């Protein structure tokens, strides 16, 4: 008998963004002439930095010649990329990492989804709410018990430190979906909680490149003690437009141990060696190139482009009388629905009346109800057009 | 408390190929001048087909322009690749597949490793022995009970149909590591067993492109009833030199149901949507190009190159009096150790006396003891040099 994983039956029918795509496609089929502007899924629209383009062309050419051809790379990634990451993303912030502590992957979604493989299914998991659905869905798939940590205006969307014990806590700052940031002081409270409770923080820092105020932490390892209690996930998707190229990385310090003294670094290395064969060589060369002086300049220009969209969206919606959050150190703007309208209702109204796709807050969890998420990843023209359409509608 | 997955403690310390790499590196450090020929890990050496190179250059250029830029692709892969696969790999063999039955991924290792996510951990798993270590390791990680199916000369390395009940059976033909093939008649016996026992066959067909005799099955779906009992894994790694590019695919027919009627196709789609974000767009365009007339011609030339190596290795070792198997429809040659020497001992002797790296059969399981695996994926010159060195040594 083929016994399936029955935990899947506890999931919502579809992954959130697949559900939204389905609803938009249905609308589009019924209204083939509708000019739809998509500010729902957090996908980028700007072309890749030229430095990455040139590096990937060179990498493709290397694969065309038997003398420079690369086959299987190391499962944990090439040293040329790992060393570059440590040099640029961590050392300038006073964080020392061994190259065995950085694992290159095909993206942060895979890593945040797969990390549960090395953790027991009886850990109690704390999930901030609203939240990126991957954390919830992948823990439901594993059969873990979830406890939700409400994030609201009152706590700046950073959650109150729990009074109960949790084994694992997911944190993401700058936050998806609320666009909120966390201060070093508040993050230190979370680290201290984890150290006290011997808990694990899974820190998703995929949006750190959008931080405009340098007093805010880019990495959880800027906080003392974090190496004993935290894994950090990073992505090139939003930083450098790599959503289709697929490259990210995960940091697991060697100091990090399970209750029985097991090294989480060793477990993840074993997991990756057995279930992964490395990220594409071409993608890794592209990622390396974004750390060159030209690459850095190009990445900054792209991020400034998106931040200009974010400002436009923030200010336009505020001008229309809506209450907006985020969008200052983040590509996401979190908007209260007008007159307490429910979030799927407002989503449908925006789709049908303005042909603008956003993400209903309820899709991110119970505490996302009453909000929608808008992304700044569109083009300037589309962001502007969307604001004009919403203005006419409201 | 961070409770880790304690099943990992039951694994061997290192993944087999990581262990071999470690031993070779140690030897290399002690003998820096040694000119080592690596015929151990099944990695390719020929450059990529020119059709794939050109397609990947075009894909990189598309990402450089906002009008043609591609961000997130579908989690299950682009239709342009799925449709091409169905058209070329299945329809000519009389196999009809819906495009929702084909899932593109970053490679067969990921998929054979991750497929367990959708299956209950209490399934009893049958593993042919010797075997590709990923099947064993990933099931140990999940805590499943394994039953080994001995593969030996007596059953042509295709295993005897079990008299006991199994829930899941892994089969791989052309086989890694033995190079054995399976006839349609024998594969039908396995399919009939699975249908009778309501079991699932996980069929790894990563080496089908090496089949020289067209009466042998390339796909398990050439066998009647297989759609109700089998998942098939395919890879571009060995077919088209994609070990560093990362692209493969998995077929899950909609007819395939769990004991409670759950669709395995729907479960895998949900898994991929939540834990994967699609294979690299560039890799998918490269894979598509190998199906063009030029791409097909180039792939065939590469495979013939490796098959020439295989013939050289087979005939040279047979001439030296060793007993050899495989290598006729497979890039792997399976060789009895001389005078019953144990496989790690022969591995070490070949490393130190001939500076040739092979894989000790015991690394693939208990029934691999007394054999080594040699791959035909080296260059012609290295394959020839390795044979000359072994000749001097024996």
Describe, in plain words, how this protein is organized in 3D:
Two copies of one chain form a homodimer. Helices cover 38% and strands 14% of the residues of chain A. Chain A folds into two domains: 7-47 and 294-393, Aspartate Aminotransferase, domain 1 (Alpha-Beta Complex); 51-292, 3-Layer(aba) Sandwich (Aspartate Aminotransferase, domain 2), CATH 3.40.640.10. Chain A has a seven-stranded mixed β-sheet with strand order 2-8-7-6-5-3-4, with helices on both faces. A four-stranded antiparallel β-sheet of chain A has the order 9-10-13-12. Chain A contains twelve helices and 13 strands. The model of chain A has no long low-confidence stretch (mean pLDDT 97). In chain A, helix 5 links the parallel strand 3 and strand 4 (145-150). With 394 residues, chain A is of the alpha/beta class. At the A-B interface, helix 2, helix 4, helix 5, helix 8 and helix 9 of A face helix 2, helix 4, helix 5, helix 8 and helix 9 of B.
């Amino acid at each position: 008998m083929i016994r399936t994983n029955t935990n899947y039956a506890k999931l919502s029918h579809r992954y959130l963004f697949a559900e939204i795509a389905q609803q938009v496609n249905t609308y589009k089929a019924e209204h083939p002439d509708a000019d739809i502007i998509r500010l729902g899924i957090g996908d980028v629209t700007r072309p890749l930095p030229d430095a990455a383009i040139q590096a990937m062309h060179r990498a493709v050419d290397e694969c065309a010649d038997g003398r420079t051809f690369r086959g299987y790379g190391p499962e944990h990634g090439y040293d040329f990329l790992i060393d570059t990451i440590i040099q640029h993303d961590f050392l300038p912030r006073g964080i020392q990492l061994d190259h065995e502590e950085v694992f290159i992957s095909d993206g942060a979604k895979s890593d945040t989804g797969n990390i549960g493989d090395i953790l027991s299914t009886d850990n109690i998991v704390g999930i901030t709410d609203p939240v990126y659905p991957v954390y919830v869905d992948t823990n439901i798939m594993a059969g873990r018990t979830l406890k939700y940590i409400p994030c609201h205006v009152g706590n700046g969307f950073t959650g109150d430190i729990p009074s109960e014990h949790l084994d694992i806590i997911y944190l993401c700052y700058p936050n998806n979906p609320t666009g909120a940031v966390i201060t070093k002081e508040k993050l230190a409270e979370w680290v201290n909680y984890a150290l006290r409770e011997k808990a694990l923080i899974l820190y998703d820092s995929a949006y750190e490149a959008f931080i405009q105020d340098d007093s805010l932490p880019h990495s959880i390892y800027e906080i003392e003690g974090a190496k004993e209690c935290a894994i950090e996930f990073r992505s090139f998707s939003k930083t450098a437009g790599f959503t289709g190229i697929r490259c990210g990385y995960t940091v697991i310090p060697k100091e990090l141990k399970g209750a029985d003294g097991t090294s989480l670094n060793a477990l993840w290395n074993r997991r990756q060696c057995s279930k992964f064969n490395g990220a594409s060589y071409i993608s890794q060369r592209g990622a390396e190139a974004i750390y060159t002086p030209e690459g850095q300049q190009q990445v900054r220009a792209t991020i400034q482009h998106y931040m200009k969209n974010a400002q436009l969206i923030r200010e336009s919606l505020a001008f229309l009388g809506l209450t907006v959050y985020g969008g200052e150190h983040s590509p996401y703007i979190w908007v209260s629905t007008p007159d307490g309208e429910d979030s799927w209702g407002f989503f449908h109204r925006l789709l049908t009346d303005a042909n603008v796709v956003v993400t209903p807050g309820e899709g991110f969890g119970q505490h996302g109800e009453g909000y929608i998420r808008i992304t700044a990843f569109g083009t300037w023209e589309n962001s502007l057009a969307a604001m004009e359409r919403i203005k006419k509608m409201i």
